[in-house]
């Protein structure tokens, strides 16, 4: 907000330049998580699926299935397993294909955990 | 304050980009694109963000999008909430009342099936009742995410209008 104010005073325009240009305020948005596969053991993946309150995370066929559409960016997965989960910073997620929102993240073989 | 970056587009480029999008919308419809919002049981967080699109900072109107209260004037249905069973008839009627070509945009994690499971009270997601064309994730999606979703929707609309065959199917 202070940045918008300064920009507005300088340019006389308060409107975002978003579609043509990056919006700085977008860096502060809560965004869905990104996962680090090298830290994602079987146990951790199961724990992530357990803590997700909006059923966006599930373990299937040795992969962590992440449905971005169901994610509310609450951050509980990051709290539960901070090593393996970080913020993605992605907010331009709209799509015309629902299946594009379902991401599959490989899990380490159970012996490595 | 940092010095202006030569690689960044200038203010004139920004206006040109906004004007180009606005012109594209006008070329597709012969007028601006009108949005009808439909709350199918959301917590109103999505509505707050949608309302902000018309505020001076986001200024949706500069891009050629407008809100309308009438489904018969609307080209795009912006649906929020998990689609309550009690509301599904009204949602279908709203969709039927809209003129072709029309688009349905499911907005927020509820509408995408994330928050509520299907039960006696809600369908759990919008696509159980309406043919969804564009999905916008987020809880709630920020106005920037909504703007991006609307631009995705315009692209899709262009593709859709192009696929109209003008052949009668015997009705």
Task: Describe the fold and architecture.
The complex is a heterodimer of chains A (113) and B (171). Chain A has 113 residues and is of the alpha+beta class. Chain A has two domains: 1-28, no CATH class; 31-112, Alpha-Beta Plaits. Chain A is 22% helix and 18% strand. Chain A has helices spanning 2-11, 42-51, 76-80; strands at residues 33-35, 57-60, 63-67, 85-87, 102-106. In chain A, a hairpin with a 2-residue loop joins strand 2 and strand 3. The longest helix of chain B has 20 residues, at 143-162. Chain B has helices at residues 11-29, 45-53, 88-97, 108-111, 143-162; strands at 33-39, 65-67, 76-80, 103-107, 134-136. Chain B is α/β, with parallel strands linked by helices and 171 residues long. In chain B, strand 3 (76-80), helix 3 and strand 4 form a beta-alpha-beta unit. Chain B contains five helices and five strands; from the N terminus they run H-E-H-E-E-H-E-H-E-H.
Task: Label this structure with key terms.
heterodimer; A: 113 residues; alpha+beta; Alpha-Beta Plaits; 2 domains; 3-stranded antiparallel sheet; two-stranded antiparallel ribbon; 3 helices; 22% helix; 18% strand; elongated; B: 171 residues; alpha/beta; Rossmann fold; 5-stranded parallel sheet; 5 helices; 13% strand; disordered N terminus
Short description:
The complex is a heterodimer of chains A (113) and B (171). Chain A has 113 residues and is of the alpha+beta class. Chain A folds into 2 domains: 1-28, no CATH class; 31-112, Alpha-Beta Plaits (2-Layer Sandwich).
């Amino acid at each position: 907000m202070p940045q918008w104010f300064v920009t507005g005073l300088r340019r006389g325009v308060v409107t975002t330049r978003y579609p043509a240009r990056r919006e700085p305020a977008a860096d502060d948005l809560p965004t869905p998580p990104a996962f680090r596969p090298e830290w994602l053991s079987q146990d951790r993946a199961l724990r992530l699926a357990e803590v997700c309150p909006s059923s966006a995370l599930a373990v299937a066929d040795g992969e962590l299935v992440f449905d971005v559409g169901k994610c509310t960016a609450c951050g509980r997965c990051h709290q539960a397993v901070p090593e393996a989960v970080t913020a993605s910073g992605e907010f331009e997620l709209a799509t015309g294909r629902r299946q594009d929102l379902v991401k599959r993240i490989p899990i380490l073989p159970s012996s490595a955990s | 304050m940092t010095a202006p970056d030569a690689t960044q587009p200038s203010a004139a480029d920004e206006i040109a980009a906004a004007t180009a999008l606005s012109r594209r919308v006008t070329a597709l419809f012969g007028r601006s694109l009108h949005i009808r919002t439909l709350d199918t049981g959301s917590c109103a967080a999505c509505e707050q963000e949608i309302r902000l699109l018309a505020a001076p900072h986001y200024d949706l109107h500069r891009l050629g999008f407008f809100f309308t209260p009438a489904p018969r004037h609307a080209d795009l249905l912006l649906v929020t909430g998990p689609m309550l069973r009690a509301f599904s008839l009204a949602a279908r009627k709203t969709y039927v009342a809209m003129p072709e070509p029309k688009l349905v945009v499911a907005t927020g994690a509820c509408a995408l099936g994330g928050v509520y499971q299907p039960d006696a009270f809600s369908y759990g997601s919008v696509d159980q009742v309406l043919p969804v064309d564009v999905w916008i994730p987020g809880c709630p999606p920020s106005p920037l995410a909504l703007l991006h979703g609307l631009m995705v929707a315009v692209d899709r609309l262009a593709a859709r209008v192009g696929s109209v065959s003008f052949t009668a199917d015997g009705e």
